[in-house]
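note to self: dont lose this again. the chain is below, predicted strucutre after it. 65 aa total, dont forget to put it in the shared folder this time
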Amino acid sequence: MIRLETRQRLALSETIRGLANLVAAVLVLSQFVGDGPVSWPVIILGAAAWVGFVWFGLFLEGERR
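---
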């Protein structure tokens, strides 16, 4: 397992939370831009992915304590 320094863990945490916002934007907002009907499973997947990435980012940040 890779051991990260505090500064590295904080940087990774911020990056993962930024990735969460991009995933949510792509999966949720793209549903409203397209011509097809809105897919609720994709919206729910985007929301779940956002929660998962944010939780993991906060977990990494809290690991330094």
